[in-house]
Request: fold
Amino acid sequence: MFVRLSRCTLFPLLVALAACSGGGGNAAAVQPSPSVVITADNAREVASSAWRGAFDLIAIGRLCGAFLQIAPPSPPTPAAAPGSAPAIITQTISGPDGGNAIFTWDDRDRDATYTSGDQFTIGFADYAASGLLLTGACVFDDVRIQGNVLTGLGWILQARMDLIGLVVTRGASVTPWNGSFPFGREKRTTVDLLSVAVERGVAIGQRVLAAGSVMARNDYVLDFRMGLSATGRLDDAALGGVLEFASKGVLTGLSALPDPSTGAFEVRGAAGSMLVVVPVDFFNAELQVDADGDGEFETVIPVEWAEL
Reply:
């Protein structure tokens, strides 16, 4: 159940939702400990798995959530009497880099405004934007809105984001996404907030992103910067086990670029082994590897963000 919020950050809400969900007894289940030993030999694969597991979902949520600020193509039918049939309004949106999406608004209360209880569906056909190519569907249901997302200077939107047969291509990587996620967006005067939580484990290719994982992105209006944060765990069959990940503070960069230039992202493995992804600039990072868990980084590996 979603409730209306005061103008506060959505991240704590989604942390609570993820922690308290999971379907009955699953909520109290003991999470497995990290079981992959991180070494200099597997550091690139570990970093890529954790980074993509942590931040691909927030990238998808940001792209899908942007449709909720697209106005209807023409003035919809004036508000009708309560209980009348829903109004379905559909428009075709071209992808910035190719393809298109069919954006459907189910105005269930016929009030001609995006409001609580409405439903939004996006059908992607080779829709290309922000380095991603999408095919499949995203549905926003259980929508709760405080304010006006089209014209308001401040508003909060909470919903359930359902990814249905969504296939996401990033470079040579093709990943299927199916799952239902608590989703939140908030617009303030100086910052736009976005959060997505995982309340049940979700398979993403050979990885399973665990319940309780939470991702967030802030976009700062005044200086065109963004901040990323994430905490969670995943089970990667290719690596042979479980990894834990957490951003250390907020990773920051330019909103127009996909990767951060400051901050740190920590990945923990078995026997105290650890890897830290440290941004060097907008295009490069380094992997600091502590394979024996003694608190000292024995190996530093330079990488390009594109490798992750």
Observations:
- The first strand starts at residue 87 and ends at 94.
- The chain has a mean pLDDT of 89.
